[in-house]
Amino acid sequence: MTLTATKVERESGGKPSSSPLTGYTEFRHYTPKDLEEIPQLEKLDPELRFAMKVVSRVLPFKVNQYVLNELIDWDNIPADPIFQLTFPQKGMLKEAEFNAVADMLRNNAPKEELKKKVHDIRYTLNPHPAGQMQLNVPKVNGVPLPGVQHKYKETALFFPTSGQTCHAYCTFCFRWAQFVGISELKFASKEASQLVEYLRQHKEVSDILFTGGDPMVMKTRVFNRYLEPFLDSELDHVQTIRIGTKAVAYWPQRFVTDHDADEFLRLVEKLVKNGKHVAFMGHYNHWVELETPIAQEAIRRIRNTGAQIRTQSPLIRHINDDSEVWETMWRNQVRYGLIPYYMFVERDTGARNYFEVPLVEAWDIFRNAWKKVSGLGRTARGPSMSATPGKVEVQGVTEIRGEKVMVLRFIQGRNPDWVERPFFAKYDPKASWLDQLQPAFNEDKFFFEDELEKMQAKAMAKAG
Ligand SMILES: *Cc1c(COP(=O)(O)O)cnc(C)c1O
Ligand code: SF4
């Protein structure tokens, strides 16, 4: 693939432009009803276009002009990784379900019938993975805070209400349900003040992680309302402010040319000057996303505030299931001053069959990338599953007294004492999630299971 940098220069060369970097004065996005309006799709095979229409009835779809013009290589369809990352693909639905929706569209079936079919299919796709709802929602003065998730002692997650969308949608996203409006699944918070009150009462929290969707879809004016309280000394114990974002890849303009970019970065700088560690958790799935001039300018401007950028991505079939992609991604991230952080295992939801990579293969890809980058790139951990008991990393495959086993460890545990204790599962080259693994050595349970069951029973009793 040719580097997109040259493509950008070529394409923006003759256009009138408000910015030497992009030529975009405003954000424009495309959703399923606008599929016909995407100029690049006109050249594609009509059957492929129809398939996209079918799948986008069921799964979320949203893309923007930057992703279309500068990240996707339209001479490499359908294999292009960013096309796979953002556009619906036929294989994401089971054949029978695909055909059912396709027939209904071809025959102009009544709206209500189609709606019901789509709804039924969505509910077969496990929209509620890993019991996040009941187990992790904390309370402040007896009132539940649905916008906060506090699973590990030091780190609280916060989902601001206005940050529950993204500049484009990833086809594999485990939050897909909220984007198609299965609304009871939304974590969303009403109030910055509730968050502050909660943190005031929880001195053990050293890290707050803003997440979404993507909190960077919020206007600076809105986001700053959530961030400003951290300048106050009553939140001194919160040392680190993390901002999980994909905007660095999908809309780097947010940090460069958007009208409120500077104002946002000034507040970040102020937080840093006040002694906070501000870390952007940049969601990059492929090295292509790092290489455009505007993506690099965004990185440069964020780092100029004194904030760090750490990077994370799941390992996904058709997008980055290749150790060379990770090797290049990690190497280039280190070159640009970013810190590789996590390789995740794709979760058990949505079009999982299309995207999943078995754990043993994931470990192999991880290892083959990791062994080729310098120590500064080996800050990446993984492959890691964010499962009910905690973040579980596949450390490798080995043989112990004649039994082939998989070695696992907790990076984070619902009980911190579970962390860093190696444990063993029967070798299973097909398993792609923790719940598919069996304990090795004929034991009937993993060491944490009894305690986890007790925790779950307690949480259920509390929730009533
Ligand atoms: C990953 C994660 C965190 C942060 O964990 P770190 O290891 O500190 O990055 C916090 N809460 C939840 C629920 C998580 O999944
Ligand atoms: S950016 Fe994150 S939350 Fe948004 S669609 Fe992609 S994976 Fe999902």
Oligomer state of the chains in this structure = single chain
How far apart are the first and last residues' alpha carbons, in Å?
Answer: 55 Å
Main sheet strand line-up: 5-6-7-8-9-10-11-12-13-14-15
Q: Report the biggest beta sheet as strand number plus sense, adding barrel if it closes.
A: 11 strands, mixed
Bound molecules: pyridoxal-5'-phosphate, iron/sulfur cluster
Helix amount, in percent?
25-40%
Number of strands: 15
- Class inferred from helices and paired strands: alpha/beta
Cα radius of gyration in angstroms: 22 Å
Helices, by number, come to 17
What spatial form do the alpha-carbon principal axes imply?
globular
Provide the residue-averaged pLDDT: 90
Indicate the low-confidence ranges by residue numbers: 1-19
| Strand residue percentage | 15-25%
